[in-house]
Design a protein that fits this description.
2 domains, mainly alpha, about 220 residues
Amino acid sequence: MMKRLIPVTTLFVFLFLFMLAPFLYADEVSQAPLSPSVPPQAVEKAPMTDIHDIASPLFTGLSSGAKKAMIYGGIAAGLVLLALVGLWLWFRRKQGAKKAAEIFQPPDALAHMAFDRIEPLLSRDGKAFYFELSEATKHYLKGRFGFNAPEMTAEELLPKFLDLAVSPAQKNRVSTLFAHAEPVKFAGVAPDSTDMAEDLSEIRCFVTETSRQSEEEEA
């Protein structure tokens, strides 16, 4: 839209200046100067000897007013063009930002990317592992089921989660994860490496199964 607007507006400005030009030109017809020594009455009474002796009108250039008007018109046209270019650049930038914001990642894809990032913590830091895994799970629950799980504690989340339309086995996977994670996160309990690996595997299965269920419901 802006690409069409710029040339159309430019054409309009120049057409306007072109139509205005005849009113700005001051055609100055040169006349033979009167001799200061000859009285005006004598010139008026002098007989016309030959009509061909009258000089043709001579255009001597633009008046100062016309020149100023053309300068100001050119400045105005330039300012209009600059404003249009600025609007076009702003419109393009806004459209680019809008298109970037439209990129959408489904919650299961985001969850699996988070699990891939968390997996190396299995052999390094059990506490960080459970912090990251429980947060990734909460964000998936928010994206998939629509309640604000990241702002809830495990005690607040689990009763609400038990009311969701998921199978008992799927509910057990999530509740087991939080049962293992909370003591490690807040009570200083040493994590069990076997439990950690099983919790990551089980929560991956939970995300895969519930995302497939959502696709079947939409279909």
